[in-house]
Write a structure and sequence with these properties.
The structure holds two protein chains of two kinds. Chain A contains six helices and seven strands, in the order H-E-H-E-E-E-H-E-H-E-H-E-H. Chain A is of the alpha/beta class. Chain A has a single domain, classed as 3-Layer(aba) Sandwich (Rossmann fold). In chain A, helix 2 packs across helix 6. Helix content of chain B is 71%, strand content 0%. By secondary structure, chain B is mainly α. Chain B has one domain. Chain B has twelve helices and no strands. Classes of the chains: A alpha/beta, B mainly alpha. Chains A and B meet through helix 1 of A and helix 3 of B.
């Protein structure tokens, strides 16, 4: 494993993309970033701009209005980029599957690195998902 | 000549200041974490951040000015290295030239100006908003900062060299005098604004304008901006120590710097962000008045 990959895994800056959520996943993501869970121990920080981000957290299902913006934001992200789908809606469409404005699940549009199911997933589940993502990336490179 | 290059690149210059800046940034984040009752990042976290950023893609906005966008961080970075080299050479070797105090002042504004130029060159509305806020903030804090920095010049009997100001404080530091103390308080608050930290971080307000001035930066240029900011976190307190606290003669006087850094971090953690008009009113009102009082007291010999 190269030094750059190692550093990337030790300083993941996350960008929070809420597409059409009911806000529960958003709240849990913010919860995971609060002092109680202290993700800064692992170098995980919330980035305000997509240009600073390494990981895009997608909450909520992708509807027809959001699709062009979602693709644009994905292309605006600088190169070693990871997408994490958070919550049942982002992973599989959840209860919106087959709805009139449902477009596709996230992994049909962009490559997804990790799925964190739950409605909403607890902060512990989000942290466990991130740990699995980091371990998987360490194993692969 | 080779000694100057060594000074610029290795010892008091780039390498030394970068390592010290990373340490300062780690102390900042660790103290912040402890204030918020959590553990905080590991010691090597700033290094990981910089190495990671150097491996990221550099994206240049298609509508922006590519040259200015990429050169601006480098110029700010080079000038802060120069400031650091001059300060440490003045402290350690008592070397310098007549008027290096004034040159340091100009060079210390360079990172802010380059931040503005880079933001305007990135053709992003939020970046322009951040840059205009930064410009107002610079206009605000420069006046009291310069007035406060005149105090040591007056008290040392008209020395405008760094080594002259340090040697004038060999008996008693300026901080212990009435005017020196007032000027020191003013310049501490100006330093907070110069570093772009809370309560004066309106240009980079993460929660309202998403990083503001650096919003379009990614990869190495962003890393250079971060490193510049961390190096300023070393250079500016050292500059204040030179002006008011008698420089750093022995190894143990590094504690002076640590004390100043912790004060900065605590100020940052216990204050809310002010709007840019409040910041301007604060600097042009009470701070300028205080620094004028300090100058008058210094002229009166207090």
């Amino acid at each position: 494993m190269g030094i750059k990959t190692n550093s990337l895994l030790k300083s993941l800056w996350v960008f929070h993309f809420g597409s059409a959520t009911c806000n529960n996943c958003d709240i849990e993501v913010l919860d995971a970033l609060t002092p109680r869970y202290d993700l800064e121990r692992f170098g995980i920080q919330l980035a305000g701009s997509i240009r600073h981000a390494d990981v895009m957290l997608v909450c909520g299902f992708i509807n027809k209005k959001v699709v062009p913006k979602f693709k644009e934001i994905y292309t605006q992200m600088p190169a070693p980029k990871l997408v994490v789908a958070i919550g049942g809606c982002a992973c599989s469409g959840g209860m919106f599957t087959g709805s009139y404005n449902f477009f596709e699940t996230v992994d049909k549009i962009v490559p997804v690195a990790a799925y964190i199911p739950g409605c909403p997933p607890k902060p512990e589940a989000i942290i466990a998902g991130v740990v699995k993502l980091v371990t998987a990336l360490k194993g692969s490179k | 000549m080779s000694k100057l290059i060594f000074n610029y690149i290795i010892f008091p210059g780039f390498l030394f200041t970068a390592v010290a800046g990373m340490l300062a940034s780690w102390i900042d984040r660790k103290v912040t974490a402890r204030v918020q009752w959590r553990v905080g990042p590991p010691l090597l976290q700033p290094l990981y951040d910089i190495i990671k950023l150097s491996g990221k893609e550099i994206i240049v906005p298609s509508e922006g000015n590519c040259f200015v966008f990429l050169v601006a961080p480098l110029v700010g970075f080079a000038s802060i290295i120069l400031v650091s080299t001059m300060l440490w050479l003045g402290i350690l070797e008592k070397s310098g030239f007549s008027g290096d105090f004034i040159v340091v002042f100009y060079l210390l504004t360079m990172p802010s100006i380059m931040l503005m130029l880079g933001a305007f060159a990135s053709a992003n509305p939020l970046a322009s908003l951040g840059a205009s806020r930064e410009m107002k903030l610079v206009m605000g804090y420069e006046l009291p900062f310069v007035l406060a920095a005149i105090v040591p010049v007056i008290k040392s009997g008209g020395h405008i060299t760094l080594s002259g100001i340090i040697s004038a404080q060999s008996g008693h530091v300026f901080l212990a005098s009435c005017s020196g103390f007032v000027a020191f308080i003013v310049s501490m608050l100006c330093m907070q604004a110069k570093l772009g930290l809370v309560p004066f971080d309106a240009p980079e307000a993460e929660t309202e304008i998403m990083g503001g001035v650096v919003i379009e930066y990614s990869g190495i240029p962003l890393g250079i901006f971060k490193l510049t900011k961390w190096m300023m976190m070393v250079t500016l307190p050292v500059f204040l120590i030179v002006l008011f606290w008698g420089g750093m003669g022995s190894f143990w006087e590094i504690l002076k710097y640590v004390v100043l850094l912790v004060v900065i971090v605590l100020l940052r953690n216990t204050n809310p962000r002010v709007r840019v008009d409040q910041a301007l009113r604060f600097f042009w009102g009470p701070m300028t008045a205080l620094s004028l009082i300090a100058v008058i007291l210094a002229l009166a010999g207090k």
